[in-house]
Amino acid sequence: MANLGFTIGVGQAIRRYGLERAREIYNSYGEAVDTVERLANEESIDCQFRRVGRLGVASRPAHFESKKAQQRDLAKYFGRETTLIGKAELRSEIGSDVYHGGLLDPFNAALHVGRFVRGMAEACERTGVEIHERNAAIGVRRTAAGRFEVNTERGVIRAGQVMMATDAYTDKNFPWLRRQQVCVGSFIIVTKPLGEELARGIIPKARLIVDSNKVCHYFRLTPDNRLLFGGRARFAPSDPTSDKKSGAVLFREMCGNFPQLSRTRIEYVWGGSVAFAMDRIVHAGQTEDGVYHSLGYAGHGAQMATHMGKVMDGHPEVSPVRDIAPPRIPLYNGTAWFLPFAGAYYKTLDRIR
């Protein structure tokens, strides 16, 4: 999913940053989706990019009231027109009765991220870029001449500029960056092809759907009519064992939303990590010794990581978050020991609110 809008409320963003800066940050998310679309078109990347629209569904009646306020604020402060859909009309968008309405933004997009990444890599190589896979960077040093030496598992790379773009995959060799973000597992299951009739009964207009819970689910149809269903599932890192357990959790939760899929076979399950700064917005800039960095995409990495690479191309001063430092996390050394407790807390809130 390549979605517009940040992961905090409009009012909260305005209180934090003021209207003009909040608008600049918000608009950058829309520009990021445009960047992905432009690159896919210019480089002829067959990544199934489609502007299908995002439907944020309300998991509780009170959440629908928040959707109404969100719609008003988006129109008033950001000029963004969205469509509010009440519970009675929601069946035209989703074949489930568990939600209490939704807010539709028509400009959000779906894409096949794996194909996009491969297409971008091929486009880079056509211009002479060297891509070094399976060669982890283990340290960066600025030389007396003002250039950089990047120590890797296979030797030293010398460069005039260095960009730390590792986000949730920043390892312990770079603790200063790792401490600025919390990494959370995110997991996905994909069904077998459902057939046109069943697929359209689930999501008739092929929207991207995200629920309003704190431990949320996100799901959409693929072009071959599979249901892709994702979420946090378990507050644990991704590995083959964890992915399998998380897939079982997601299957139960998927069937809770869509009982008609209870006998449907799951053909794929995978997991990965997403990174959050404590204030839940992207952060980008330059360290004192000149290393560029961008991090904390909070689940918006497909578009924002792509876009921030373009924005940060030697000009960090043009970044919409140019002078906003991520808040420090108390008692945190880069290992999120508190995640199981935080997960239990947020799941409890989802049950009672």
Provide a brief overview of the structure.
The chain is α+β, with helices and mostly antiparallel strands. The chain has helices at 10-42, 61-78, 113-126, 175-178, 196-202, 240-257, 301-311, 339-352; strands at residues 54-57, 83-85, 102-105, 137-142, 148-152, 155-159, 163-164, 182-191, 208-211, 217-221, 227-231, 266-276, 283-286, 292-295.
Describe this structure in words.
With 353 residues, the chain is of the alpha+beta class. 34% of the residues lie in helices and 20% in strands. The protein contains eight helices and 14 strands. The protein has helices spanning 10-42, 61-78, 113-126, 175-178, 196-202, 240-257, 301-311, 339-352; strands at residues 54-57, 83-85, 102-105, 137-142, 148-152, 155-159, 163-164, 182-191, 208-211, 217-221, 227-231, 266-276, 283-286, 292-295. The strands form three sheets. An eight-stranded mixed β-sheet has the order 2-3-1-9-10-11-8-12. Strands 4-5-6 form a three-stranded antiparallel β-sheet, with no helix packed on it. A hairpin with a 5-residue loop joins strand 13 (283-286) and strand 14 (292-295). Helix 1 (10-42) crosses helix 2 (61-78) and helix 1 crosses helix 7 (301-311). The longest helix is centred in the first third of the chain and has 33 residues, at 10-42. The radius of gyration is 21 Å and the shape is globular. The two termini are 27 Å apart. The mean pLDDT is 91.
Low-confidence stretches: none
Terminus-to-terminus distance = 27 Å
- Count of strand segments: 14
Helix % is 25-40%
Main sheet summary:
8 strands, mixed
